[in-house]
Specification:
about 375 residues; alpha/beta; Rossmann fold; 2 domains; 7-stranded parallel sheet; about 20% strand; globular; Group 1 glycosyl transferase; transferase; Glyco_trans_4-like_N; glycosyltransferase activity
Length: about 375
């Protein structure tokens, strides 16, 4: 059995996003039930590493000033593990591969993010296609150095093998969520704290980036009696606030919520809306499901797998506003039935279920 793991990641605490949350949750639960999972990550001002956490010197990441870019080194004192698991293909991930090869241990790599879909948000139009080709070439080279790649959904696996063209062995292992935390919760204290109405509430929490297409959610509630509640923040927020003001839709911007508030946030919603077409898993949709809240999602990316049509919500053709509104109406009309089915899915969504699968992957690469 692989008892000890060293995770190398460019995204970790105190950063708030899906990768950082997954690594932190895996570390906690692996250590609770199996062995130890050390983490190597870029140092961030104000965060003091705990035992088993190793920070490397870092600088502000180009194009993404909220993130840090660590030096591609393994700090002194990191114990040699049974398996190295790299979670990102950037500098700290490269350091993880080097560390594994220098110490003769196998490498597992996670494919968390579809890089080529983010290019259009960062470069001028003439450079989009060359930029995407460059991303795919880099990913092919990086993941070829791993003994196994784990992907969170079958969609991500198809994308990696077919679109990126990676020649790797890829195994689907959902990131899983903390179902101890994410469960149906009394929403009234949160409703009162933020002054949310009793009428139909639709909502989203997470990054406010152009790729999330949250303006479509604003347009979908325009002209209805629905309230849209957007938690989180990001570079698109100013434009989203302007869009809401132009339409006159009832949109509430809550900013970042404390993680402890999220179960109540999901529970207060009648439906969670997720118009992003570029998710590799979409953990927030799974968190909403675990809280008994059905999801209305774009029929694209990992949400094709993550939102079960007619069971945990409804999907619609990306960019089709009328189809989006119809999916919302169906979800609200069937709210009680869908909520019950969401609750029945909780065991399959748990991180414990995911770590059982991950343990089998670790064992395979050690043989």
């Amino acid at each position: 059995m692989a008892d000890t793991v060293a995770a190398f990641t460019d995204l970790y605490r105190p950063t708030v996003n899906g990768v950082a949350s997954t690594v932190a949750l895996w570390r906690e639960r692996w250590g609770r039930r199996r062995g130890s999972m050390d983490v190597v990550f870029p140092e961030t001002e104000g965060y003091v590493p705990e035992s088993g956490e190793y920070a490397v010197p870092s600088v502000e990441a180009p194009l993404y000033p909220r993130y840090r870019l660590g030096r591609p080194i393994a700090p002194e004192g990191v114990p040699v593990p049974d398996v190295v698991h790299v979670h990102t293909p950037f500098t700290v991930g490269v350091a993880g591969v080097r560390f594994a090869r220098a110490n003769g241990v196998p490498v597992v790599a996670s494919y968390h993010t579809i890089l080529d879909e983010r290019v259009s948000d960062r470069v001028p139009d003439p450079l989009v296609e060359p930029g995407r080709r460059l991303c795919r070439a880099y990913e092919r080279a990086f993941f070829a150095r791993a003994d196994r790649v784990v992907v969170p959904t079958s969609f991500a696996r198809r994308h990696l093998l077919e679109r990126v063209g990676a020649d790797v062995e890829a195994t689907v292992v959902s990131n899983g969520i903390d179902t101890d935390r994410f469960r149906p919760t009394d929403p009234e204290p949160l409703r009162n704290r933020y002054g949310l109405p009793d009428g139909p509430l639709l909502g989203y929490t997470g990054r406010h980036g152009p790729e999330k297409r949250l303006e479509e959610a604003i347009d979908a509630v325009d002209g209805t009696d629905h309230t849209l509640v957007l938690a989180g923040d990001g570079p698109a927020r100013e434009n989203l606030e302007a869009r809401a003001a132009e339409t006159g839709a009832d949109v509430r911007f809550l900013g970042f919520l404390e993680r402890a508030e999220l179960p109540a946030f999901y529970s207060v919603l009648d439906a969670f809306v997720f118009p992003s077409p570029v998710e590799t898993q979409g953990l927030v949709a799974l968190e909403a499901t675990a809280c008994g809240t059905p999801v209305v999602a774009a029929d694209a990316g990992a949400l094709v797998d993550g939102v079960i049509e007619g069971e945990t919500g409804y999907r619609y053709e990306p960019g089709d506003l009328e189809a989006f509104r119809l999916a919302i109406r169906r979800t609200l009309a069937e709210s009680d039935r869908l909520s019950d089915l969401c609750r029945r899915r909780r065991a399959m969504l748990s991180v414990e279920h995911s770590l059982e699968q991950l343990a089998r992957v670790y064992e395979d690469v050690r043989r």
